Write a sequence for this structure.
């Protein structure tokens, strides 16, 4: 009769004991966490619960470490530690990539500390590549500060690489300030690298201004290379404006170099007909016109030599010097990349000045690959003065590179050819 009430009472007592035990354990965990200065798990549980969400499982909460204000957030390591860990990796792409990523991350927050660490701890290619990458965020955020830091670096290749990276980033927003800073640098190699960075960046956004600046400075060998880069971008952006700019430089000493580069880019980007039309609009002397036509056919032969040869075959012109210049340029490039096809075209040409010019260009191009073929073709030149000069020049170059093979060939060639070659001043002694 009393069995069921007694059983129910015992069940309720047992349930209360279990609930009390869990509550006791829960409070103990919270008290321990609070005494250790940590955010309590119950606090975390409340934070984790939002509208429409489920509470975090208890087993996950019991193993979770919740950081306090004094601790670094989970997953974030000291940047210097990240760099040291990256440096401990074996040499290779993985290490280089890890160094660049860690240094760039640190430089975003503390650029001077990051760059100073790189200078003190890295060498070789890792030093240069990491410096270049890490200075970018500083150059974008505070270029004047970055510029002062680079200026005080030891004057060596590391400073040059850093100056290049700084100028590349700074010129996007203030090319004039970048240029003023570059001109104040002490070491010539560092200035050169910085100017290269300036031109690379500036010409991408303002190619005409970049070209004008380079032309005004006067061109040494280094700046001539930078001018080619800037001019190529100018032609790509607006070939008509580039052509007008170059035509306006007709009285400048830089005009021939500008024009030849412009012609080459026109051929590549717009086609040879556009380049030909531009040449015809220029008021230049015949010698300069010949040089431009040579530039045209050099570039055309790089793109489509057979097409250029067809035009040369069908051209109607009384300017034989111009045709000779084109034939020389065509064969100088075509023979270098396809000796057989160019020789086949050459064999169909009638004897005369145009064919002689073509043979001269052909033999110059073939000499490094097959000196015997180059010399045999040169013997077919009809102009005696040109034939003599070409045979002597080619043989002299071959004899310097391979005297044994050249001497053997000379012993077995015709007496007339041998006498022609040995009459050169270089062989008279």
């Amino acid at each position: 009769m009393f069995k069921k009430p007694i059983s129910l009472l015992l069940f309720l007592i047992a349930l209360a004991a279990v609930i009390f035990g869990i509550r006791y354990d829960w409070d103990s965990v919270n008290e321990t966490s609070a005494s250790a200065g940590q955010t309590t798990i119950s606090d975390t549980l409340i934070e984790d619960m939002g509208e429409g969400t489920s509470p975090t499982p208890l087993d996950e909460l019991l193993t979770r470490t919740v950081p306090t204000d004094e601790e670094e957030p989970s997953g974030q390591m000291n940047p210097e530690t990240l760099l040291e860990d990256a440096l401990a990796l074996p040499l290779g792409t993985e290490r280089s990539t890890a160094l660049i990523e860690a240094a760039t991350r640190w430089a975003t927050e503390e650029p001077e500390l990051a760059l100073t660490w790189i200078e003190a701890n890295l060498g070789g290619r890792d030093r240069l590549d990491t410096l270049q990458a890490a200075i970018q965020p500083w150059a974008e955020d505070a270029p004047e500060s970055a510029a002062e830091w680079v200026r005080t670096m030891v004057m060596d290749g590391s400073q040059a690489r850093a100056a290049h990276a700084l100028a590349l980033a700074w010129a996007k927003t203030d090319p004039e300030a970048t240029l003023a800073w570059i001109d104040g640098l002490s070491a010539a190699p560092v200035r050169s690298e910085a100017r290269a960075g300036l031109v690379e960046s500036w010409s991408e956004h303002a190619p005409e201004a970049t070209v004008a600046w380079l032309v005004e400075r006067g061109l040494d060998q280094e700046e001539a290379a930078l001018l080619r880069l800037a001019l190529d971008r100018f032609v790509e952006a607006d070939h008509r404006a580039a052509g007008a700019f170059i035509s306006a430089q007709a009285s400048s000493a830089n005009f021939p170099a500008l024009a030849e580069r412009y012609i080459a880019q026109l051929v590549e980007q717009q086609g040879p007909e556009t380049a030909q039309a531009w040449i015809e609009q220029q008021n230049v002397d015949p010698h300069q016109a010949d040089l431009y036509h040579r530039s045209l056919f050099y570039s055309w032969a790089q793109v489509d030599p057979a097409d250029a040869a067809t035009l040369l075959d069908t051209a109607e012109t009384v300017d034989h010097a111009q045709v000779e210049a084109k034939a020389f340029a065509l064969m100088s490039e075509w023979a270098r990349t396809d000796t057989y096809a160019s020789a086949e075209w050459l064999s169909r040409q009638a004897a005369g000045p145009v064919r002689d010019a073509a043979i001269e260009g052909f033999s110059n191009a073939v000499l490094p690959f097959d000196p015997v073929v180059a010399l045999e073709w040169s013997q077919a030149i009809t102009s005696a003065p040109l034939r003599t000069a070409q045979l002597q020049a080619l043989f002299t170059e071959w004899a310097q590179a391979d005297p044994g093979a050249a001497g053997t060939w000379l012993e077995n060639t015709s007496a007339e050819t041998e006498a022609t070659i040995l009459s050169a001043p270089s062989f008279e002694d």
Notes: Residues 22-27, 32-75 have pLDDT under 50 and may be disordered. The CA atoms of residues 172 and 395 lie 53 Å apart. DSSP finds 26 helices and no strands in the chain. The longest helix spans residues 3-35.
